Amino acid sequence: MPPMAARRPPRPSRSGSKTVPKKTGAPTNGPGKAAKPSGKAAKPSGKAASRAGRAAVGKSAPEARSEGIIVGVGLATCDLLCVAPRFDERRIELSVFSMQGGGATGTALATLATLGDKTRFFGRLGDDHFGHFILSGLDEVGVNTSFCLVDPHKISPISIVEVDEFTRRRKIRFSPGNVDPPQPRDLPLRLLQNASLLCIDGYLPALQAAVAEKARAKGIPVLLNAGNLSGGMGELLALADIVIGSERFASEFAPSDDVEKSLREITRVGPRVAVLTMGNEGAVALEGDKLVQQEPLDVFVADTTGAGDVFCGAFAHAFLAGLSLEEALPFANAAAGLSCRSLGARAGLPTREDVMSAWRNGQA
What we know:
Layout: E1 17-21, E2 49-51, E3 69-73, E4 77-84, E5 96-102, H1 104-114, E6 118-122, E7 124-126, H2 129-141, E8 143-144, E9 149-151, E10 158-164, E11 170-175, E12 195-200, H3 205-217, E13 222-226, H4 233-239, E14 242-246, H5 247-253, H6 259-269, E15 273-277, E16 283-287, E17 290-294, H7 307-320, H8 325-339, H9 352-360
Parallel strand pairs: 2-17, 3-6, 3-12, 4-10, 6-8, 7-9, 12-13, 13-14, 14-15
Antiparallel strand pairs: 1-5, 4-5, 10-11, 15-16, 16-17
Helix pairs in contact: 1-7, 3-4, 7-8, 8-9
């Protein structure tokens, strides 16, 4: 069945985020800092490394927001978050249930919109309750979803996120639904009009390579949110100006005990700036010969779902505001850390004032 014309579906009666706690209250959360990485982080080496943080706090701030529109092409999901003391039994009563918007690009754009930027999303969803919920959540924070394609009688992407009440460890069970994947020919002619940045996430690489090539031809920088190494990622890296990758991505693409070596290997493919987010080890970024390290935000951690995507959105905000790498890294790190105080990717999106307060007070 051919896709319907791009349109926004009717607004559902529910908001873009819903949480249902157990009657006995929310689970007891253990204090922590940033997200725990999957393995021990490699340590940056070399005299070129510098530390961002307190020295940069208050020197400058992203006062001026981008005049253009940040366009995102990628994954937006409905996240069903389940918190329980254990998941090894046949029947389990949840301590907390929450239904929120998610997805790498969806959350990055929601972060940018919350920080005050103009944003635009392109993808394809089903004309089901989940699809309505996803678009309603984006619309409520100010993301323009009018370019999104909607397939009738199809199921939208969803993620079931299981969070252990005591360890805070997660399992994510993802379904792409059965929507027809958008093809390069489906890209709207005006998608990149007045765009200042293109954000992609490696989901549907052929489509993202096509739109990235169009962006590069127009002089629009491209930011790649690389959560893991998937097919077609090499081509997307070559088209990206900025890549923000996870530890998992770095270990798969450029395995090394030396983070700086991994970052240099990534930049050789094409990106001018390479950033690695490393959970409770903070973040490290490389631009040319400049290596910058950032310690994690000292914050109470309830859940790390979507923290890397919030980091991407906040880094894009700082980049477009003209901040240096030494300033953009702690700004993005503060935003990601603050988002971990709440369950889910969207419930704890920080405002610009929240991030600036943490940054200026030396908490990032």
